[in-house]
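[recover] target loaded
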């Protein structure tokens, strides 16, 4: 018994340490920050020269800290620069909610290129015109699941994860296999991703939108994993 108890304690400590390490390896949360300190500085604002920026701030809903976005004829995004090997971390998970879609929103035109909410993955290239991105959007007119080129940037593809007002006002959890989405959209295996970004924008339509984002994270899995397994 003298040796048994220390062995149990050491084993328990080992399981705690390795379990914690495993959890850290399997998921990479992109924290928004806390109410006292504000938005995490890892989320860098990307503004546009001729447009006032969207207003992003932290809020609390159901005991969780979430990011709220308010846009009135405004546009700016928040970018989290992080190098991601999608063969190891193919799954992107987040929650979002919108107040309503933009009546004049239309992903097929420059004048309608506004969205109450979007989360996107950026694949940078040293020659900027060759930078690619997948924009997971809450669309107005596109059918759910439809993919179209962005009217301003052909290498940015818009994928309608949600569409219309049916789910407006409700928190929705999304799970995407970015590795497989890239292969389907661009016809090749993805390079290393360089950033995760989000944006609520209304500058082209001149409208207004409010959205909330929460729980953005990358998850390690097989690159062919079914993303629905991660969205109970």
């Amino acid at each position: 018994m003298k040796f048994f108890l220390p062995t149990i304690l050491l084993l328990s400590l080992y399981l705690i340490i390795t379990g914690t390490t495993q959890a850290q390896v399997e998921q990479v949360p992109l924290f928004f920050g806390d109410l006292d300190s504000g938005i995490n500085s890892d989320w860098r604002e990307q503004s546009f020269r001729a447009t006032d920026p969207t207003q992003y701030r932290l809020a609390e809903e159901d005991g969780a800290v979430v990011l709220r976005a308010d846009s009135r004829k405004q546009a700016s995004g928040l970018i989290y620069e992080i190098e991601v090997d999608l063969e190891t971390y193919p799954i992107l998970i987040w929650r979002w909610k919108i107040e309503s879609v933009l009546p004049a929103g239309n992903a097929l035109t420059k004048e309608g290129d506004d969205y109450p909410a979007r989360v996107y993955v950026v694949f940078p290239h040293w020659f900027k015109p060759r930078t690619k991105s997948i924009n997971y959007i809450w669309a107005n007119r596109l059918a759910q699941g439809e993919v179209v080129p962005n009217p301003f940037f052909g290498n940015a593809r818009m994928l309608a994860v949600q569409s219309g007002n049916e789910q407006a006002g409700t928190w929705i959890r999304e799970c995407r296999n970015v590795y497989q989405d890239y292969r389907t959209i661009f016809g090749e295996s993805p390079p290393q991703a360089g950033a995760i970004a989000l944006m609520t924008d209304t500058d082209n339509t001149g409208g207004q939108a409010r959205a909330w984002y929460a729980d953005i994270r990358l998850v390690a899995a097989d690159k062919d994993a079914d993303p629905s397994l991660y969205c109970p």
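[recover] notes: The chain has one domain: 29-230.
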